[in-house]
Known about the structure:
Oligomer: single chain
Order of helices and strands: EEHEEHHHHH
Shape: globular
Radius of gyration: 14 Å
Amino acid sequence: MAKKRINFEIDGKNVDVYFGLDFLDEIDKKFSPKEGGQSLGLGLQITLPTLLSGNVKMLAEYIYNGTVTESPRPSFDAVKNYLEEVDDIEKVFDEVISLLGESNATVISYRDIEKKMKKAK
């Protein structure tokens, strides 16, 4: 079965975004608390509510870190510029959130967090 991906044209290049284990490693490096120098692996659980609330800066982080396996990889600034100029930012959010709900590496955490957020409303 092929990996589920989304594609954006960033800085004039077609870029695949994939939310797999490499993506989780990147999110954990940047956002997960550490204990004894080791990541607790909570990056997705910490950042996903921010993304789901419509935070464009977090959307940029997700897209950028979802390109970790791309070569050449777009710069973080190129991703931010793309988001500042895209015609339909809501569509980008919808595509990213949809992929999080389908990718094997993220689906369980995504469903759990989504359920908790709905209960909290």
